[in-house]
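Here we describe the complex-level prediction in full. Unlike the single-chain runs in Section 2.1, the two entities below were treated as one system.
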Amino acid sequence: MARVAFAWELGKSYGHAVSCGGLARPLSVRGHDVAFMFRELRQLNVLPEAIAYDVFQAPCSSREGWNAQIPASYADIMLGCGYRDAAELTGLVGAWRALLGHWRPDLLVADYSPTALLAARTLGIASVTYGNGFFTPPRLSPLPPFRFDEPVDPARVAAADAQALANVNAAAARFGTPPFASLADMFVTEEDFLCTFPELDHYGTRPTSGYWGPRLRLDLGHDAPWPEGKGPRVFVYVQRWLPQMDALIESLVAGPYRVLAYVPDLEPARRARLAARHRIVLERPVRMEAALKHCDLLVSLGGEIAGGALACGVPSLLFPQHYEQYATARRIEHLGAGAWLHPSATRAQVEATLHALTHDTRYLAAAQAFARRYPAYSPAEQRRRIVQRVEAILSR
Amino acid sequence: MRRFLLAWEFGDPGRGREQCALARGLRDRGHSVLLAFADLSTLAAEPLEGIEWVQAPRLVLPASPSAAPVDAADLLLALGFGDPPALAGVLTGWTALARLWRPDALVADHAPAAMLAARLASVPCVLVGKDALAAPSPGDVAREARLMGAVRQACERQRDKARIPTTARELFEPDVRVPGDAPDAVERIEEAGAH
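The structure predicted for the assembly as a whole is:
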């Protein structure tokens, strides 16, 4: 049996941890040893099975985001996360090398983890990427911009790429690794588990790639039946710090909706305002399998849950909070299967958009048409195929 | 030859530099040293041949921490010890590191979660430095009760739980105290690792 290390280096919230957990579990059940090297360890509270794994803190830049401009490319993100300074990057690579060198994985599964990939390369450890389109850049030189809502100066993209590459090569030299010809070379792996659909790829198009479908954990959480009644069924999964949280609550209360809402750590006063016989505010994550099955609308920030809902034929109302979510929201909007609202949206806009999405049947038709394109997709089947591919790589 | 894990979790970067000096001293006497630091940005500039480093598990600070902690328990709450899931994650990271590196002793400076994890993993702990955590004053009873409630919850979630503290005072009690700037600090740490 083999040793598989999961790295999560960049990005926030629960999605990365839960997705890694979803793939780790079948690998562990099949006898492989698992380690998590995670950016945030608080998220282990939703992965009780992780007590059986070795769980380490992923190296992180202590100056993340300092003096960083709004990123337009993956190289920009790297520059804001330690790649602007060769010495700092060397510190990060050294820390990854120590973890990987001592734990000795046969395979690194890298979820939005460029420095883990770099360290694995310096140690000769096989690696794969595992994440949606945003987390896995196309292998182009320079790494292309992901912004599509405004022009991006090609010279800026090239300069960021060159700066990151120079510092990568300085760090690589410190550990006796030959220089990379391009920044894209750093991302060469055994496989890209590109966990999205081509229509939702943040980069729009990229050289020929395999798409594995979104990572969705339908099996986590507890069952919560939909409230009885006739109103549209709205499944809400957002964070309490959402700028329109109050507007969303008031809009749901004012409408005829049946609601299942999971908002982690929602304040008691807001919970009391939202909860009613036909609006269930959940204390714990709900098992999405049942929730999505009879759902008329998903309300979320975006991310992989929106892609997963789309694959189930469910339209979305999205409140994107950063560019990755914004890109997903825009692509779902282009598909006609949802709408998104700006952080400055008013209560009237929230109310009107909720009404439109649950009454204009074109949204539902577009979502169902999308789902029909991928009849073979299911989160369980996606994981089964990835596990199969991982074991094929491990058996080489 | 013994193995030492040197931990620094928060505060003045000078703590990290002092730990680097101790690491070199231990290395020069033939021991293996792993640094676990909150900030890795300056390590590449330090002369650390033969010494490896990792990221210290990151404390999750509360949204509104106490601006000026009034006692040691208050300081730990300001460092995130009042959030059981967050503290549990940090302790999991430290105990996993202890299993990986198998240190004969933890050398802690501004590293309260590492000290707590060392208790859970039965690793002897040497406290260096001169920080507030080295000599806690009697504190507010209600605050300490809140702290210890969270600490107990976090400890119960660990795989290793050899010595779960029952009083706040135990959080600050190392097996050995060594002023980091003592002329014989390296020798005293070395000796602590022999027991």
